[in-house]
Amino acid sequence: MAGETAREICLSLKRSPRWLYKWVARYRSGDPQWSEEESRRPQRQPRRTSFDVEQAVRLVRLDLYNHGLFCGAQAIRWELEDWGVEPLPSLRTINRILRRKDLTHRRTGKYEPRGKKYPSLEATSVNRVHEADFYGPCYLRGPIRFYSLNTVDLATGRCGIEPLIDRSAQHTIDAFWAIWRRLGFPEHLQVDNEMTFYGSPAHPRGMGMLIRLGLHYGIEVWFIPPREPWRNGVVEKFNDVYRQKFLRRVTMTECRGLAPRVAPL
């Protein structure tokens, strides 16, 4: 091929002049590996999900999993929206991140009591002790997310259910008030360490709206130890009944189908 022009070489090899000059330039660069094929992967990927968003998806998924909540892509996306994460990833992107981070395992096993002593309240009369807990997030077809505030009177077994769209302090107070109007005001209210029950992230040492409402009406609010849901065993059992007997059997597509209820345990 000595003495041939660039045009003749390209015609004989059926290649373009651009291809030829690329290899000439690589040969003249002096690189001993000039003939090795280079990766065609782009050096920049502007559409790739940012590291911060991936970390947020990972943290939200672990937080939902550790709290025993539904931790699928839709639930994670809603939590990211509540956190104010921008840009908000799509469901497909969240699923790809979960697979890449190996966070697709399912929850197994049961709660194991630690055996620590804790004062228990005796329900000797009606409205002596109420146990309350949030169940959710739950999902209607649409999808629509909601929560259910479930309350049980330990003496009679009567249960109050109040659905709400979010767990903000004001909505929680409104839900408790609606339940107490049906069941009556308790002397003692036992709840877990849900942030809405005891305070707020902005004022962690201040009394939340529920505590102040209880003090105003003479209701003593009790908090069980963190990560020990069996201390609220009655309402936790009712949450399971609520899930199996109601949520799994009744199909709803609108929020107005979530009518408040009072039922025996």
Net shape: elongated
Strand order in the largest sheet: 5-4-1-2-3-6
Taking pLDDT < 50 over at least 5 consecutive residues as the criterion, the unreliable ranges are 260-265
Query: In total, how many domains does the architecture comprise?
Result: 2
Helical fraction equals 25-40%
Could you give the distance between the termini?
Answer: 93 Å
CATH architecture of the largest domain: 2-Layer Sandwich
Question: What features would you highlight for this structure?
Answer:
265 residues; alpha/beta; Nucleotidyltransferase, domain 5; elongated; disordered C terminus
Any overview of this molecule?
By secondary structure, the protein is α/β, with parallel strands linked by helices. The protein has two domains: 51-100, no CATH class; 129-264, Nucleotidyltransferase, domain 5 (2-Layer Sandwich), CATH 3.30.420. It has helices at residues 6-13, 17-28, 51-66, 73-83, 91-100, 169-183, 195-198, 209-217, 233-247; strands spanning 129-140, 144-153, 158-164, 188-191, 220-223, 261-264. It has a six-stranded mixed sheet, with helices on both faces. Helix 3 crosses helix 4 and helix 4 crosses helix 5. The longest helix has 16 residues, at 51-66. The model is unreliable at 260-265 (pLDDT under 50).
